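User: I've been trying to design a sequence by hand for this structure and keep getting stuck. Would you show me what you'd pick, starting by listing the structure so we're on the same page?

Assistant: Good idea, let's start from the same input. This is the structure you sent:
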């Protein structure tokens, strides 16, 4: 009796070569049993060459060369560039690993989601908190208990005061709302039910955001977040309350790589099984993009 050979690892191309690409995407793709980091392209050829040599990949001269060499594409580039190249990758039949936010605006996110749907490819968003076992257990417990009437989030950090993201203009321009807002809105949405409306928002001069959200079923939540506060260590706290009391979730330090591995587990399994829907797929990314847009508009009116 012959055993069926395991499927060959997915050939994945990486677009981007910044700190997040080099510390999470590249080693994660290279080390995972279901993927192989095959090709890399960045706008700086010397960066692509160095990163490719470190992980046994090839450095490509352009994105079309990368598309020709891979089955899937992982992105670690600014949102506007990701939305544009993501559409091209989907149209070329490539599966996608997308960063958050998935685009610079709702229109770009809609085009990307439509391209993914039309192509029938898998597209997962790197919402690292959602892939953590600690988070999944917390959400499972909330769903089992039910009866939650409200929640609050605090994500206070000095990440944009340091050097790590000093060369990331989009983060400095768009700030906490675009960078950590998708993580925040995704998890509080998963905990209390879909966000139906942004009731109010305010952004201070030092990029401290306060947002009030309404959820399906009548629950409300408050969000406070900033990446420009000198807080060490960062404060990351999600809480819900209701008829079963108060339940809180913090962020486990150093869990990004573990979460990325869990994402790749799901990514490879979905492609192998022909499944395209997932709690953190491109349509989730579009939902979050719409919340970001509502918050931005509400702050502009404040």
């Amino acid at each position: 009796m012959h055993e069926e050979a395991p499927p060959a690892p997915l050939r994945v191309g990486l677009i981007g070569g910044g700190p997040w690409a080099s510390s999470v995407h590249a080693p994660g793709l290279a080390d995972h049993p279901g993927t192989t980091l095959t090709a890399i392209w960045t706008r700086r050829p010397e960066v692509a060459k160095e990163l490719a040599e470190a992980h046994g990949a090839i450095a490509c001269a352009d994105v079309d060369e990368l598309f020709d060499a891979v089955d899937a594409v992982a992105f670690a580039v600014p949102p506007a560039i990701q939305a544009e190249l993501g559409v091209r990758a989907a149209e070329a039949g490539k599966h996608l690993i997308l960063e958050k936010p998935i685009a610079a605006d709702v229109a770009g996110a809609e085009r990307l989601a439509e391209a993914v749907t039309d192509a029938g490819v898998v597209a997962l968003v790197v919402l690292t908190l959602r892939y953590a076992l600690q988070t999944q257990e917390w959400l499972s417990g909330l769903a089992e208990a039910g009866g939650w009437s409200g929640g609050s989030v605090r994500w206070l950090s000095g990440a944009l005061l340091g050097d790590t993201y000093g060369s990331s203009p989009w983060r400095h321009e768009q700030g906490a709302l675009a960078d950590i807002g998708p993580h925040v809105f995704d998890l509080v949405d998963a905990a209390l039910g879909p966000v139906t409306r942004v009731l109010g928002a305010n952004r201070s001069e030092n990029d401290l955001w306060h947002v009030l959200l309404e959820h399906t079923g009548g629950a409300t939540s408050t969000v406070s977040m900033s990446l420009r506060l000198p807080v060490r260590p960062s404060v990351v706290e999600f809480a819900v309350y209701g008829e079963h009391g108060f339940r809180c979730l913090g962020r486990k330090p150093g869990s990004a790589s573990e979460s990325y591995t869990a994402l790749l587990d799901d990514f490879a399994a979905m492609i192998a099984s022909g499944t395209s829907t997932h709690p953190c797929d491109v349509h989730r990314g579009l939902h979050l993009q719409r919340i970001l847009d509502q918050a931005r508009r509400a702050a502009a009116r404040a």
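That's my pick for every position. To get oriented when you compare it with your attempt: The chain is about 45% helix and 25% strand. The mean pLDDT is 94.
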